[in-house]
Structures are given as structure tokens and as C-alpha cells.
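Troubleshooting log. The previous run stalled partway through. Resubmitting the same two chains, unchanged.
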Amino acid sequence: MGVVGVAGVGEPLPPLPQRSGPGRADAVVPRPAPGSAALEARAISKRFGGIQALYRADLSVAPAEVHAVLGENGAGKSTLVKIVAGVIPLDEGEIVVGGEVLHLASPRDSQAAGVAVVYQELSLIPELSVAHNLLLAKLPKRAGIISMARANRLAEEALAALGLGYIDPRSPVRGLPLDQQQMIEIAKATMVRPRVLVLDEATSSLGGAEVERLFGLVRSLRDQGTTVVVITHRMGEVWTIADAMTVLRDGRTVGRFPVGAVSQNEVVALMAGQDVRTIFPEKPALGAARPALELRDVRLRPDRPPWSLQVRRGEILGLGGLEGQGQRELLAWLYGTAKGTGTVLMDGRPVRVRRPSDALRHGIVLIPEDRKAEGLHLELPVRWNLAMATLRRRSHFGVIRMRAERDFADEAIRRLKIKLNSPFDAASTLSGGTQQKVVIGKFMAREPSVLLFVDPTRGIDVQTKFGFYEMVRDLASAGATCLLYSSDTEELVGVCDRVAVFCDGVPARVLQGEEITQDAVVAASFAVVEAAG
Amino acid sequence: MVASGAALGVGRRPWPRVTWQRSYTAALLAVTLLALDVVFSGGTFSGIQALGITNDALPLALAAAGETFVVLTNGIDLSVGGVITLANVLAAALAQHGLGNEGVVAAVALGGFAGLVNGLVISYARIAPLIATLATGSIFVGLALVVLPLPGGAVAGWLPGATTGSLGAVPVSAVWLGLMLVGGWALLRRSQFGVNVQALGGSEPASWSAGIKVVRVRTAAYVASGVCAALAGVVLNGLTQSGDPTIGAPYLLDTIAAVVIGGTSLAGGVGTIVGSVLGAVVLSLVSAVLLVSGLSTNLQYVISGGIVIGVLLVQMQLWRLRGATGARPRRAARGGGGGKL
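Second attempt completed without errors. Output:
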């Protein structure tokens, strides 16, 4: 556990230990002298409920520079952008634009200072026309009356200047394809001729040609003296477009380099912050335990041959392969929400699961992928979320015994190592990984013997992932049988005792022990045709 | 419904057509009901009939027009009934003391103040509009009972003529309705305030990040609603030539119904004042048609309710058609992390 640098909640986070290698390359680029930077964020800290999103993060961008901000999910990139934009207030630190310390109470303040932001989530108003959106707060007026003719003409010119002449300024934004909406967003930001333009994951919904056009635009803006900050996790883009970069990890700035000074691998290592090997819990040797879960003559897709598989008590079986090869269908079938044929035996006895209530009765639990929609009541306290699935067990004639509920929830929080300020925190204040733990905690009271995980760590930051893996391993060691589907091969390799690589509804290859390597899983995924025969 | 292809696709100028579509429902209903009215009254349509309908519609149309601003911001103003009552009794009571003109001004100013209170309570105390305006509405009704416990009072000398009179064959109230149609369109389409209101209802975070002063716009919408409701109360003073501390109550639900029939989305962001005014006319026509048809006018609530549900069903259908071609696509939020295949 000591591998990860996450400290207990409630105390300030210690600074990261000084790293060797790229971490020191900070010295390679001298920061612009104080005051000469176009945009500077100094020692920014920001906390959301139990999560320290930023801890004394620094960003310093020279004038007329394209500066990339890199980091994994949850590293604090978007939070930093929102603070610079004045959308959320900072806890500590200061934002300096053009040598002037800004007091940002709302986006108007940052706009007044010449900062324009293109957000990750589209910030257009779908029911209004393109022209309305582009000019929103500054529609051209004569004697207080809006001239739509002039507004449309202005919008048309602005769009044409960006090579978007094919977009009709009169059409409502709602009807336009996503990539066009994204380009309109960028047009909106550049229309005010900003001193600093911030693009937050602006390319994530664009196709190749649009990305090219956007980069052309960024270059020409830079050449005209605009400072551009690009937030991305597409590594390649950084080397294409940026002059310099800042790397964030866990809310801290961990490096600042000119683009030529480091390799992509070095930056990846810096972003991840730890050697991949070390973050997975150890795999214990599994004895020749009897199969706890046996699947016989399973057919998920009618035109494919039937197959069988056995999973032992305490085993974590990974389901790998390309996306959409039947892994999700298998888990859904076992949980009674998808069709399929075959026999399921638990401890040698056949069980029939036709709906989720059957599955729960037999001790089969599915941890859904979309924890926010399917697993949690976001506004309710963690304690209630944990207790919710098993209320009846702690009730007398329908009245919930509060003390039993408290003890139950506290026990779950302790056992699953759920990090909280208080059990009364709303579930929405937790990070993704912690939320996922709460979902699992909710089902643990049923003492499930089979746990089905559907891509459980998608969108969860590295630190929390580790805690999550450790928990899954603990559950397995305590006797649970786990089936884990993941789109992350690294995770399958690191966590699972065996990995069944799926192809077209059939586990084409089952890897175990030393066979499980990232290369082997990938190879098996692609070499499926021969393997599946 | 005539959901034309251009309204659905990305064709030329789809934007004015979509909005026209929404108020079109109310226009169609109004025309149909008017035709029914003519049929039931034996193929004639007298000036008296017209006067009855437009006089009946005017106060409701005013309240509905004001409510439209609030609904467009994704709020709701349930205090309109209270404001109508309070403005009505204030104007009547002051007129009785010979302060007719002052009464009208005071009533309208009070409506604006009531809206300001609503807006500030909602913006700063962060109380949900539904509850906040329900509570303030109750306060306004209570104050009205203090001002004028029993029906009575008087009216400014010029007021009846300015509301219930006729200009030749044309009812004055019809002229007011016509002006509201034009003014309502201009306000929403040609003023920054109108655009801001729609933007706020469309997406509050987006409006905020675009630099719109959200609190100010929202408060202004409630002020507009308060002023309009007060005007409705003053018009009722002119129509009845007296004040009545119970007069506003039935207007609350009719106001919301008119807005909904007019095609404004209760989720905010889309809608028209034109539609709301037409919606008010539709509701007045329902009782007019019942009157001439010989059926019990008590059926009007049943029919109005049916119309509201019918209109919503039609709109949902339209929305679905639109959704099939160009609904807001949601961006797939894919997690990072290495090792993807």
C-alpha cells in the first residue's frame, strides 16, 4: 500500500519525493521570469469534498507559446482549466495573466483579462442558432434592437476565417454533428481575439481533417502572438503542436519541459508516476480447489459452437480480447439480464438464473460499469448507499435499526478501505474509484460467492485503481470467485489468475500463470481466427 | 402534425421553422375553436362574441406572456395568481379614494417588486422556484386580503375604456393582444434580454461561462412576470370595475396551461410569447365555444386539461422525430489508462 502516495484524508498531502530522471528536467527550461509569462498559475490548491484535486500546482506559459498540459484522468488538468477560467474558485494560490494578479469571481473576469476557454464538455446552447452562440453576450444591436442580419454576417465571416464556411450561422446548434459543434466552440473562443486561448481536450471529438485544421489555426494564432494552452492526453498531439509542456500528476506539477527535451516514454512514466509492476497485488498460488463456478455448453451467440469453462474458489478470471467479443454478454447472462444457453453449476449444483433477483439469491453479484447511473444514489450519504441493498436484514417489522446500519456501514468502510471524511459524505463527492468501492460494499452484505465485474476501473485514476485491485484480491482470498471483464489489458495481466481471451462469443484461448503477458493477451485477441478454429 | 423535412434536417434556415412549429399548435387550435364557435352560433360571428373572447383572454394572455420569461429560464412562477389579486385590489382600493392613476402605477410597481423578491429569493437563498413562488404567492394573497377584505373598490375613469372598449368594430383588448404578439416576438428574438433568457434556460453553465450575468437575467425574468401579472390584475380591475381578493386564484393554473399550450418547454430554453398569448386565446375560446354550444361551461376545465395533455403529446412526438435526426449526441467519456487493445 505504501507504494502509492495517497495520504489519509483530512491532512495536507506531502510533496512527492524528488524523482530521478525526467523529474529533474525542470531545470532544462528556465521558467519565464516572474511577470514575463503570459499566463501563470502559482501554487494552486483546490479540494472537492474528500478529494484534493490540485495541490500547489504550478503552470507557467511564455507569451506566444503553445503549451501542453498533460496528465492522466484525475490528475487535475480540467480543474486547473476551470480555475483559470474563473468557473470554480481556487482555495489557495494565484492566477497571473500578463503580470497582473487576477481575482476571478466568474468567467467574465477571466474573459476581461483576455483568457478564452474551450471546455471539454460542450458549452453551447443547443436550442439557439450558431450565430447566437458565437456572439451570445455581444450580439450586434442598433438602438438596443438586435440585428440578426449583422449577427449572421459576423458569424459567417468568423466561420469562413476558420475554414468553416459550410456551417450555416442560422441553423440551431442542436442539429449539427458533434465535430462541427466542437469547431463552433473553438470559433466562439477565438472570436474575442483572446490573449490566452485554452483548449481543454478540444480534439477528442474531432476527426483527422478537423484536427489538422485546428492545429493550423493554433499555429497561426501563435504566430500572431496568442498564447495557447492545450490540455490533452493524446501524446502524439503534444509533439505535433506544442512548444513546451507541463505534466501533472495527482494534482501536482511534476515536470515542465520544452517538447524536444524528453521522450514520450519518459513523459508517460512521469504521468503514471510509478512502475506498473508494483501497483498490482501479489497473486497467491491457487491450490487445486474444486470449481466453484462451472459453465457447461454455453452459447452466447447461436451460430457459434458451445464451450465450457470452470472457475475455482478464490480465483480471479479475466475476460479479455477486443471489445464486443461477448465478454459483457457472458456477465450479463450470468446475472440474468441477457440471453444465452447453457448450464451454470455452482459448487456442483445447477442453478437457473433468469433475472437479477435469481442471481442475487444464488449469491451472484454484478458490479455495473456505469456506477453513477446504476450503482449509486449520488446525493445520498455513503452510509445509506452501503446499507441500501440489505435494509431488510437490519429492520424490525420494517423499521430500520439505526445502530445496526451504522455498524454495518462502518465495517464495510473499514474492510474495503473506503477513504472518506465522514460516512455522511454524499456519494457524489467521492472519486470514481472510491465510488466503485461503495458499490461493491453495498453488495458485500449479501456475502456473494460470485462477483462479476464489468470494466470496473474505466475512468478511474491510477492511485485508486491500486486500492481497488487490492480489494478484489482480498475478496477472492476470502473465497469469492471473481469474473473480471476489462478493456485494459494491463489490468488483466496484473490482476487475474487466468485470462480467457474472447472472440465472437467464445473464449478462444485461456492463458494462465506465466503465460499471461500483455503481448500474449494482445496476440491471442488478434490471432483468434485460428485459435477459435 | 406537419413536421416538414426542413425542420428536421440541417437544411437551409431550419431555425425559424422549428420555433414557428411550436406556436403553430396553439394557432391551429385557436383557428379550429374559432371555427367551432362560428358553427355553433349558426354561422355568424358578432362583435359582441369577439369582445367577450378577447376581453376574457387579455388578462390571461398578459400573465402567460410574463410567465413565459420565467419558464424559458427553466423556472416557474406560481405567484402570478397572488400578484394578480394584489394588483387588482390595490388599484381598486386606491381608485375608491380617488387615486385612480396612482393606483394603476402602484399596482404595476408592486408587481415588479414582487417579481424582484421572487428573483432574489430564488437566486440568493437558492430556494427552488416552485416552493419560493408558491410561498410568496400565498403572502401576496394574504396582503390582498388586508388591503381589501371583501370585493369592492372602484376603478380609474379611463381604465374600462382602455381595456373593454371598442375601436369601431375592433375590441380594444384585441388590439392589445395583437401588440403583445408583435412585442413578444421582438423581445425574444430581437433583444439581448430575450436571447439571454433563452440561453439561460438552454444551459445555465454554458450561459455563465459565456459571460451572461445569470442572476441578473433570472431576476429580470421574474420581474417581467410580476409586472405582467400586475398588468393582468389592473386589466381585471378595468373589466370588473372593482376589486376582488379572490380574483387571481383561477389564473394560476390557466397561466401555466396557456404557456404549455403555446409550446414553451417547461424544461426551459425553447418557447415563444406568441405561443403563450395564443394559448390564452385558446383557453378563452374553449369556454366561449361551450357557451354557444349549449353544453355546460363547467366542462371547460375538463376540456382545457385534455388540450394541455394533447399538446404535450404532440410536442413529445415532434421532439422524438427531431431526436431521430439530430438529437444532442453525448460525448463518450472514455477513460485513459494504458494498455488498450
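Takeaways: Residues 14-40 of chain B form the longest helix (27 residues). Strands of chain B lie at 166-167, 170-171.
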